């Protein structure tokens, strides 16, 4: 199936794409241990990449990324989502809506999403936009954005006490066209927010882990 092939290609080509020579390091936050890169914009397409550690296992991080119920805590523009179709095991078509910010109108996305665990214990969450107005027609309230390719890679590393996969190196890349005319200062604001996404995820992952541990202890 086309969806499965393309989603797996995003995963398979992830490392090569992230190592391409035209990435420009635009944020090096040594305090937070986070780096953020951008490629030159081409015909309205933005390309971004960010990297940093989260003190949790890859599974802990993956659970948070897949939980749309907490998504607004790390992406304040997130409004709502709707499961449209289950394509195959761990592959779904979902519809998302996002609030506007500054002078930008609200956006929406229709995505096909794959959650994948490889043999070495690395988790991937890959997705891209699908043109399926038959599943979710465009509405005047939202400008339809387009994600060409996007992927999270969650790679386990030993913790300070030597426990396997106690830390996760999180790498996220995305190529997208936000749609419509966007002034440069609005784009800069959005890029700044994206550069902080791993820092925003950390306390949510930690809270989720703590709640899970308490639940297991009670049982």
From TrEMBL:
Residues 19-191 form the START domain. Pfam families: START. GO terms for molecular function: lipid binding. PROSITE patterns: START. GO terms for cellular component: cytoplasm. CDD domains: START. It comes from the Eukaryota. InterPro entries: START-like_dom_sf (IPR023393), START_lipid-bd_dom (IPR002913), START_lipid_transfer (IPR051213). This is START domain-containing protein. It comes from Halteria grandinella. The lineage of its organism: Eukaryota, Sar, Alveolata, Ciliophora, Intramacronucleata.
């Amino acid at each position: 199936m086309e969806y499965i092939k393309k989603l797996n290609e995003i995963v398979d080509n992830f490392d090569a794409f992230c190592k391409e020579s035209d990435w420009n390091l635009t944020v090096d936050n040594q305090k937070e241990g986070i780096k953020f890169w951008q490629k030159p914009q081409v015909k309205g397409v933005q390309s971004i990449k960010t990297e940093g550690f989260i003190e949790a296992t890859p599974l802990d991080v993956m659970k948070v990324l897949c939980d749309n119920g907490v998504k607004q805590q790390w992406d304040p523009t997130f409004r709502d989502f709707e499961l449209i179709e289950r394509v195959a095991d761990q592959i779904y078509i979902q519809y998302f809506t996002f609030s506007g910010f500054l002078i930008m109108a609200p956006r929406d996305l229709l995505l096909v999403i794959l959650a994948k665990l490889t043999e070495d214990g690395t988790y991937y969450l890959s997705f891209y936009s699908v043109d399926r107005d038959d599943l979710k027609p465009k509405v005047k309230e939202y400008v339809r954005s387009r994600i060409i390719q996007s992927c999270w890679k969650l790679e386990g590393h030993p913790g300070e006490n030597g426990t396997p996969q106690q830390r996760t190196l999180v790498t996220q890349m995305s190529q997208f066209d936000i749609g419509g005319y966007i002034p440069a200062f609005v784009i800069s604001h959005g890029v700044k927010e994206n550069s902080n996404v791993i820092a925003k995820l950390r306390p949510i992952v930690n809270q989720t882990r703590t709640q899970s541990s308490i639940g297991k202890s009670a049982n």
